[in-house]
Amino acid sequence: MRFDVVTLFPDFFTSALSSGLLGKALLKKIAEVHFVNPRDFATDKHRRVDDEPYGGGVGMLMKPEPIFAAVESLPILPQRDVIMMTPQGQPLNQQLLVELATGYDQLILICGHYEGVDERVLHLVTREVSLGDFVLTGGEIPALALINGVVRLLPGTVGKAESLKSESFEAGLLDYPQYTRPWEFRGWTVPEVLRSGNHQEIARWRKQQQIERTRDRRPDLYSNWVKESGSELE
User: Fold this and answer.
1) pLDDT tens, 49-70?
2) Residue 229's CB: how many other CB atoms inside 10 A?
């Protein structure tokens, strides 16, 4: 998997991409991340990448020419998606991460800045993605979240692939509560069923906990799960 990040601030990614499982995955060449700075493609002597919006308004917009030139300088792999990170895009969720991890060889991530980008940049874009209903100073944080979420799904990143199947959102439900030693901490104890050794009962308890957690914490997800599974918590 190849990522190409179009950003004015490539140094932003340095620490995160060299840490933890993500850093190990990149060292093992499970994925590779490249950066291209639109400022390198600015044609005026001041290397400007922003300008005032037509019609007036507060703030500056990123100009289309440097972004187009940056994207067009990149290699083209057979299956690629050009993604604009923007609050106006489709929500980033686990289903989308799975689609990106399994359906593409190359993801180009365009990180906006200032008050946004010239609308004509969307002619380059095949998908708009949002981290949530809020506004950040730029698209770098959402882009990093997307890279992290996709890379961890690629074969070889996570040691036990089976662990990916039982985590939150994979079955439309939140994850079940988990415990480790000590069995008692400040008066809080590990549920007896988890120490029983009865794997059938443990599996039943975990599924029940998933359903209850989803119902209580994410009614929206619970409603979707009920519709798709035809089940409901009694």
Assistant:
1) 999 999 998 899 999 999 999 9
2) 12
Please check whether residue 158 lies inside any domain of the structure.
no
Distance, CA of 231 to CA of 234 (rounded, Å):
9
- pLDDT tens, 109-136? 999 998 899 999 999 999 999 999 999 9
Q: Model-level pTM?
A: 0.89
| 143 and 195 belong to one structural domain | no
**CATH, residue 41:** 3.40.1280.10
Domain that holds residue 209: 166-229
Note whether 86 and 133 are same-domain residues.
yes
What does each C-alpha distance from 28 to 32, 97, 152 come to in angstroms?
Answer: 9, 21, 13
Q: What pLDDT was estimated at residue 82?
A: 98
One domain for residues 7 and 117: yes
pLDDT the model gives residue 57: 86
Place of tokens 């089940």: 231
Amino acid at 136: L
